[in-house]
Write a structure and sequence with these properties.
Layout: H1 4-26, H2 34-45, E1 46-48, E2 51-55, E3 58-64, E4 73-78, E5 81-87, E6 89-90, E7 96-97, E8 108-114, E9 125-129, E10 132-138
Parallel strand pairs: 1-8
Antiparallel strand pairs: 2-3, 3-10, 4-5, 5-8, 6-7, 9-10
C-alpha cells in the first residue's frame, strides 16, 4: 500500500520526468543531454521560494502561495528538506484558478528548500493566512 508521502514523491518524480522528456523532444530528440534536461526540469518543477528563519529552537518556513485554499496545499517535510505543493483548482467555468500567471501548464506548483539544520517533522504546525503559508517546526537536538 502506497503512503501519502510516497504518492507525493511519485507525483514530483513524474512531473520532472515528463518535463525532462518535453525538453528532450523539443531538442529534436538529441541524445546526450539527459543530465542537463533532468536538471532543468527539476529546477522548473521544484521552484525556490521558501524563506527560512531560526527562532530559538524552532524554524519558521514562510512562502507566498497566492489564491489557494488550505485544502489545496500539501507540505512534505523531511529532516533536512521541505516541499510545498499548491494545487491549482478549476472553477465552474473550467478555467484554472489560483496561482495566477506563474502557473500556466501545471496542475500544481512545488516550492522547495533544503534546510541548514535538521528538524523534527512530527512537530510541524502550519497556517495559511492572506496568501502566506507559515510552517513552524522544531529543530532536531544534536
Amino acid at each position: 500500500m502506497e503512503s501519502e508521502a510516497d504518492a507525493f514523491k511519485l507525483d514530483i518524480q513524474q512531473r520532472i520526468t515528463d518535463r525532462a522528456y518535453q525538453l528532450f523532444d523539443a531538442s529534436g530528440r538529441r541524445e546526450g543531454n539527459d543530465q542537463a534536461n533532468w536538471c532543468q526540469a527539476e529546477s522548473e518543477v521544484l521552484q525556490r521560494g521558501i524563506d527560512v528563519r531560526e527562532v530559538g529552537s524552532w524554524l519558521a518556513l514562510c512562502a507566498t502561495v497566492p489564491s489557494v485554499s488550505a485544502e489545496d496545499v500539501q507540505i512534505y517535510l523531511e529532516p533536512s528538506r521541505v516541499i510545498v505543493r499548491a494545487k491549482v483548482t478549476k472553477g465552474p467555468d473550467g478555467q484554472q484558478h489560483g496561482m495566477d500567471a506563474w502557473v500556466s501548464t501545471q496542475a500544481a506548483v512545488f516550492l522547495t528548500t533544503d534546510l541548514a539544520v535538521e528538524v523534527e517533522p512530527v512537530t510541524a504546525i502550519a497556517s495559511l493566512k492572506n496568501n502566506q503559508l507559515t510552517v513552524s517546526v522544531k529543530k532536531r537536538r544534536p
